[in-house]
Automatic annotation (TrEMBL):
Keywords associated with the record: Cell inner membrane, Cell membrane, Membrane, Transmembrane, Transmembrane helix, Transport
Residue stretches spanning the membrane: 31-54, 66-82, 103-124, 144-164
Family named by the database record: Belongs to the TRAP transporter small permease family.
A matching Pfam family: DctQ
Membrane topology reported for the UniProt record: Multi-pass membrane protein
Protein name: TRAP transporter small permease protein
SUBUNIT field: The complex comprises the extracytoplasmic solute receptor protein and the two transmembrane proteins.
Subcellular location: Cell inner membrane
Domain Tripartite ATP-independent periplasmic transporters DctQ component residues, every copy: 40-168
Function of the molecule: Part of the tripartite ATP-independent periplasmic (TRAP) transport system.
The species this protein was found in: Halomonas llamarensis
Length: 192
């Protein structure tokens, strides 16, 4: 099954209500990422055509791409956490026996969730500060604070994803990097 098919048919590894939350968040992430990338491509291509065919760029194209990059970035961190594709420095972790790895993974997941919620809190404070200043985007005339709403949304969903990963590790015998990704490395070595 390809990665696109597995994303469409995503099934949470968590039981009951937690599985419903996990599945719902995966659908939200997929829509945000797909829509963001498609809109950015469409906006960029349209702007290039307008520049070369009509001699004028679309005035708000850069601002729209800025909004979409922020949206994709903060939806992407949640996606990476969901699929266990975040960066790991695992020398100590790999040296531990399975029980130690499990305890450490639960701690890492909960600590990372706490950091995500902490960053979410400060991103909300930042947005409120931006809102109080009343600045707007030059071309779109849209309040700047609106484009940063994606930060607390993405950080909170990522935090939730790490909490769900900790729950999955508490409930399971195996060690999981995310609710669906078992710990381990794929053998990617090839002979020359």
């Amino acid at each position: 099954m390809s990665e696109d098919e597995s994303e469409k048919n995503y099934r949470s590894g968590l039981p009951g209500f937690l599985g419903v939350i996990d599945t719902f968040l995966s659908k939200v992430e997929a829509v945000i990422l797909a829509l963001g990338v498609l809109l950015m491509a469409l906006n960029t291509v349209t702007n290039v055509i307008a520049r070369f065919v009509f001699g004028n760029s679309i005035m708000f194209s850069g601002e729209l791409n800025r909004i979409l990059i922020i949206m994709i970035t903060f939806a992407g961190i949640s996606y990476a956490a969901r699929h266990g594709r975040h960066i790991r420095m695992s020398a100590i972790y790999d040296a531990l026996p399975a029980g130690g790895r499990k305890v450490l993974m639960i701690f890492i997941s909960l600590f990372t969730a706490a950091v995500m919620f902490f960053l979410c809190y400060y991103s909300i404070i930042y947005i409120l500060d931006m809102q109080s200043r009343g600045r707007v985007l030059p071309a779109l005339q849209m309040p700047i604070w609106i484009i940063y709403v994606w930060a607390p949304l993405g950080l909170s969903i990522t935090g939730i994803q790490y909490v769900l990963t900790a729950v999955k590790n508490v409930m399971s015998r195996d060690v999981y990097l995310s609710t669906t990704t078992l710990d381990g490395y794929k053998d990617t070595e090839t002979e020359v």
